[in-house]
Amino acid sequence: MNSDNFRISGVNSSEVEIEILDADEFENQFSLGSFIKIPFDDNGINFGVGIIDDYRIKSINNDSEESEAERVIFTIKVKLFGSLLFDESNVTFNRGINGIPLPPQTGISILSNEELSMIYKSGINVNDIFEFSTLPKNSNVPVQMNGNKFFNKHFAIVGATGSGKSHTVAKILQKAITMKNDGYEGLNNSHIVLFDIHGEYPSAFPNGNHIDISELVLPFWMLNSEELEELFIDTEANDHNQRNVFKEYVIESKKNLFTGSEEELDRIHYDSPLLFDIYAVYENIKAKNEETIQGTRGPKAGPLNGKLSNFVSRLENKLNDKRLEFILGEDTRSITFEEVIRRFVGYVTNQNSNITVFNLSGIPFEVLSISVSLISRILFEFGFYYSKVREEGSNEIPLLLVYEEAHKYVPRSNLERFRASRTSIERIAKEGRKYGVTLGIVSQRPSEISETIFSQCNNFVSMRLTNPDDQNYVKKLLPDTLGSITNLLPVLKSGEALLIGEAINLPTLVLIDRCSPQPKSNDIMFLEEWKKEWETLDFDRLLEPWKKR
Ligand SMILES: Nc1ncnc2c1ncn2[C@@H]1O[C@H](COP(=O)(O)OP(=O)(O)OP(=O)(O)O)[C@@H](O)[C@H]1O
Ligand SMILES: [Mg+2]
Description:
Elements: E1 6-11, E2 15-20, E3 35-39, E4 46-61, E5 70-87, E6 90-95, E7 109-110, H1 113-121, E8 129-135, E9 138-146, H2 147-151, E10 154-158, H3 165-178, E11 191-196, E12 209-211, H4 225-232, H5 240-257, H6 262-266, H7 278-290, E13 292-295, E14 298-301, H8 309-320, H9 325-328, H10 330-334, H11 337-345, E15 355-359, H12 365-389, E16 399-403, H13 419-431, E17 437-443, H14 451-455, E18 457-462, H15 468-475, E19 496-501, E20 508-512, H16 526-531, H17 539-548
Parallel strand pairs: 10-17, 10-18, 11-15, 11-16, 12-15, 16-17
Antiparallel strand pairs: 1-2, 2-5, 3-4, 3-7, 4-5, 5-6, 8-9, 8-20, 13-14, 18-19, 19-20
The structure holds adenosine-5'-triphosphate and magnesium ion.
């Protein structure tokens, strides 16, 4: 658009009103959300930058008597949010601007793709550039971000169902595991753990370390006291007797099986990650429930006799529950602490992996929270202890934990049954960064996720959001000057997203690059499938995995 076609008609500290003089030149060249640059002076170096927030159309009667035609005037409202300095071939962009100096200069124009591209790169070291998207209207303009700033703090990917979150996760992680410095063969040093609640990611990461329920070994003796109690004790009943006897016998069994020094033995406590015999604990509690003691007038019922009956039968149920084999079965007693950690972080002998995908789809719902909690806690502790033992000169091992459908493990509500996973993940949100452990939170309901988690996220990829509460959530992340681009959230196409945060110089609407290979989350073509011939079904094959749950 010809720059002489813009004329400033009003200015205040954060907003400029601009008239378009000749509407015929308008020609679809910009839309709401387009960026405009306004010169500060007449030497073409300093500019203010704003975003088109609103426009109005006025028609006025043409004064000339020969013509009956009406003249149309467009007025656009531009919210100012930053300034640009053109310096030889460089462009420096700064957020923040102190209004437009008067009198206004001519030479207002829409930012070109090249200028936008320079803004995205401004201030980012070439080695730090990370990109996974382009401008929606121009796939030749990549939107570049600062990759260190993206990964070294927590990030969130939000969007309604079908908006493209899983594909975005796959794209970002595929990029991360393939980027390399020159000079070496083999894997790079990225370490990612993905919690995959629907089992959709194996196809996207064919060389990943895939752990599903049949391979998962999550030893009960590594659970901390809260997780143990959540598993074995009816926490809602709030029965102190149950807690006390359980604690006593767990510690006793840990001590009985311990083979270290006397001094270490004394330090064993309820939370020590040491093997104990859950069957011995069960037998002891059962005995306590049946105990008789010698009274002055002969034998009488012990103090807890009959008071632990519900607890005993609950323990019995858990110990016999085939679905809990991955927590309580034979393998959980023979596996070592080291082997568990190796599997969790992809340091598997002869098969190191940049990405470990926990397929949680087969985990019974009632133990999902403690399972996620235990895995997350171990990964946090891995980062913590590695930071203590890392030797001068050796590489860091930064770990990214990505939670799909995060509202399921870290909901905003205080429900007891999510307490374990919430506590573990919130701890990582608050302290993980210091030890090289960061979070990627993926959710279709941002407004239902724990505030503690969201308030710690520094970068956001917001895809289409249809629910007003969720839209407001994202709106709050943006400065007022840019808040209005969130009006576009409900109408984004699949794969389009608003990138916001520290890693990007300018909050921008983008199209995420297609990932390859894809996660198994593609929409099912109902009509196409329905139109085919009736599908015969092998019910045995259908029921086999079903019955095992
Ligand atoms: N970058 C993209 N460009 C074009 N289409 C895309 C893009 N990303 C995803 N899609 C399409 O959008 C659809 C939904 O993608 P996806 O499964 O990633 O959404 P989702 O947000 O994870 O959904 P859900 O919440 O149900 O898990 C898919 O059919 C996919 O092909
Ligand atoms: Mg998905």
